[in-house]
Amino acid sequence: MALPDPLRVGEDGVVNIAACLPAMAAQQPEAVAICQPVGRARGGAVRYQRVTYAELNAQSDQVARGLAAVGIGQGVRAVLMVPPGPQFFALTFGMAKAGVVPVMVDPGLPLSHLKTCLAEAEPQAFIGSPKAHVARRLFGWARATLRTHLVVGGPAWLAGLHGLGWNLLLRAGARSQASALAPTRAEDVAAILFTSGSTGVPKGAVYTHGNFAAQVAMLKHMSQVQPGEVDLPTFPLFALFDPALGMTTVVPQMDFTRPASADPQRLVRALIDERVTNMFASPALLAALGRWAAPQQIKLGGLRRIVSAGAPVPPQVVKQIVDLMPAGGKVFTPYGATEALPVCGINSDEILQHAGRTALGAGVCVGRPVAGVSVKIIAISDDPVGVWRDEMALPQGQTGEIVVQGAQVTSRYWARPEATQLAKIAMPVGNGFWHRMGDLGYFDAEGRLWFCGRKSHRVVLNAQRTLLTIPCEGVFNAHPAVRRTALVGVRGGAQTQPVICVEMEPGHPGTAELIEELKRLGQAHPHTADIEHFLFHPGFPVDIRHNAKIGREKLAVWAAKRVVQTRAL
Fold first, then answer.
1. Closest Cα partner for 410 from 193, 207, 191?
2. For the segment 255-295, what is each residue's pLDDT rounded down to a tens digit?
3. Of all helices (H) and strands (E), which one includes residue 160?
4. Could you give phi then psi for residue 48, rounded to 5 degrees?
């Protein structure tokens, strides 16, 4: 099914991801675009700074002209490290309008990874808070290529220590008479977004303006969001879709680098006070919200939908959250990755319908491919695949690696030709390609995709037997005392042994009796029947972006030490 491109400007082929903003400002100029918390009133209520669509459009125009005037113009790669707020939104839309290429790296990454990512991106400009600039100078980020430094926030004298200040940028923009909207085209680079690095040093996915345009169209088609709705995005990048969808963004009071530690009471107060209808939240944040609100039966305002991504959402969390939403409210979990989002979609009705199969080891159902996306399954391999052949596609029901095609799928990684070669399969004719998700799964008879875990996390026991994480963990996660489990492989001589790491629900200690119960659970299923090693872990390491993906590589190292100690005893 062909989807409309909501970001096309005129009939001249110009595509700019920020073109939605002036269009929405013309359609609803007085509608609130951004609600930013700025403190508390005398009675304790949160005070908000409200920015209309007309104001945000005008501010981002001024920023776009100012950026070009100070040498940060079309095609310039610029690191962006500014906390969410009105300046963040004016900057991101201003950068897009000017054709600047933002380089987005999660500041919570290990310093060695962060320095590597910035060196690879070779940015010419650095736009950040005073704190970010101090870190830039201290750790020498991208020192060889940076030419322009823009400081956002803090006093003017502090900005002068590190580079150009915000007020200077705005004055330069006010003086300029240039067009704010650069004539970018679909194939032009729009952003470099680094992955979370859950399986190694993060890679920079190269987004074009065409990728973003297709992504917005698909998300709009999936969500059925209507102009005038109100969004509470607990992951800042998702807030940038709101103007294209005509929504008001309510910026939550939280540390965006630690979503699982967000204060549930503050979130619920924002949901109710601002009449929020849509919310984006990571699985870890949803779990924390449910644990706090469910015992008190606190309802989640007038939420129509919650969108959660970054990792599978446990069915028990979905049910808990749906029970707290108004009648008809649903949880949507789009499947995808930084390189390709969305790929599939499913809502809470189907998630709960198939939850029983997850507990039997079937994997996690992630729904059907969204309109405009093709998905196939190929044989598992760690080697590059040069050119696509139709006979590579496996039949329905057979598990393999998930590969996808679609206008929203990025075509390469920045400065990583080997990673690009490994992740892309060229079509025999034309410029098309299939993207290898690095995930394993299969299609059921009804055309639904079932996710079975990361390819790199599979545990190969021998030539005939391989264990996949999600089908194995689903069996043990069904135990009511277990919060979550993680399958890892531990080498013992010439053999690899499967080990289940177990994180308990609060108040449930790990005991020898529980291990026996878990073994009996496993013995009821062929793929988990011979797992003998169970280790209790106080709290799994997780990814820094959504606090949801389990750090299985770190757990494997931890488990290997424990198994060796056990053998020694």
1. 207
2. 887 787 889 999 999 999 999 999 999 888 999 999 999 99
3. helix 156-162
4. -120, 145
